Amino acid sequence: MLSLEILQCLTSKVGFDDCGVAPAGYLEPEARFMDEWLRQGLHGNMSYLERNRSLRYDPRELVKNAQSIVVCVLTYEHSGHDYHRAIKSKLYELEALLLQQGLITPCDTQNKFCDSAPFLERAWAVKAGLGQVGKNHQLIHPTLGSYVHLGELVLKEPVEQTTVHRALSTVNCSNCSDCTLCIDACPGGALGQPQWDARKCVAYTTHKCTVCQQVCPMNKGKNHE
Predict the structure, then answer these.
(1) Which residues of the chain have pLDDT under 70?
(2) pLDDT score of 131
(3) What is the CB neighbour count within 10 angstroms for residue 219?
(4) Whether 71 contacts 125, CB under 8 Å
(5) Fewest C-beta in 10 Å: which of 44, 65, 221, 224?
(6) What is the pTM of this model?
(7) Domain for residue 225, yes or no?
(8) Nearest to 159 by CA among 57, 11, 24
(9) Rounded CA gap, 222 and 224, in Å?
(10) Would residue 110 count as lying in a domain?
(11) What is the pLDDT of residue 172?
């Protein structure tokens, strides 16, 4: 059986900054939360989020017989100008290494994702032990901060948890403690309520605002380019 220890070693070899894994399954709390978020129209004009919800909530609908979700992390600094291409390339390298070592079987369908399918990336990153979603609604990794991109490799094999992933208690980013810097700095007032309002987010219209990440103490001293 493929072990998490070997998986982490191979992901590091192809250039990822971290990885975690979680058993494939239905994201029930996240599905209820997102359904309500969509019902309230907080997604604005992003109508594509209303489609393919069954696929979005259960990766086994995307990859038949999926058992494991491998979530890989790549920092902005290591992503280059096209993070989609950088992550996809590394996912292909990772899969090739796993196949060469006989640790997985070939997949007959698309099983590598990076903003390319209805996939709740941050939810799976949390389940894989890679951090928590902060008040800025970004994944906050306990050592890398939120300047990270995510990619996923869905496997039909289980992964044995032979090592214990870092303790997330080193950073209380599940509620960001008493910090409100991102809420106070948000130019559109999109933060500060239980559900993020995309219609008030400057990045929703310009795709250029990262204020909520720039002021986050977890990103202090980190390269956001």
Answers:
(1) 162-175
(2) 94
(3) 21
(4) yes
(5) 221
(6) 0.92
(7) no
(8) 24
(9) 6
(10) yes
(11) 43
Cα angle 222-74-207, degrees, rounded to a multiple of 5? 75
Render the burial of 171-195: b for 16+ CB within 10 Å, e for the rest.
Answer: bebeebeebebbbeebebebbeeee
In a domain, 108, yes or no: yes
CA distance 153 to 134: 24
Write out the catalytic residue numbers.
Answer: 115
- Structurally, how many domains does the chain consist of? 1
DSSP secondary structure, the chain, as one string: -EEHHHHHHHHHHTT-SEEEEEE----HHHHHHHHHHHHTTTTTT-GGGGS-HHHHH-GGGTSTT--EEEEEEEEHHHH-S-HHHHHHHHHHHHHHHHHHTTSSPPPSS--EESSSSS--HHHHHHHTTS-EE-TTSSEEBTTTBT-EEEEEEEESS-EE--SPPPPGGGS-TTTTTT--HHHHH-TT---SSSS--GGG-HHHHHS---HHHHT-GGGTT----
pLDDT reported for residue 223? 85
Residue type, 225: E
